[in-house]
Amino acid sequence: MTITVYSKPACVQCTATTRALEARGLSFDVIDLTQDDEAFSRVSDLGYRQVPVVIAGEDHWTGFRPDLIGRLF
Fold it and tell me: Which branch of life, at top level (predicted)?
């Protein structure tokens, strides 16, 4: 499964999300929305207006969600 975290600099919830993914030993990519207009459009099209946005396979959510991170394999 591919996991992507869409983030912005100095985002506390983004840092918490990536640390939780690392703690579970999960591989993921981080994309800075301030540096990638295409990625910004992609998450906006999904209806998200805050970060982090996590896309894990077919699932996606926003915010620090340890409950959802715990379900990832």
Answer: Bacteria
Question: Which token pair is 56?
Answer: 């894990």
> CB count, 10 Å around CB of 19?
11
Judge contact between 61 and 3, C-beta under 8 A: no
pTM value surpassing 0.90: yes
d(CA 19, CA 41): 25
Who contacts 55 (Cβ-Cβ below 8 Å, separation ≥6)? Answer: 2, 3, 4, 6
Please name the residue that has the structure tokens 């990832």.
72
Planar angle of CA 1, 39, 29, nearest 5 degrees: 35
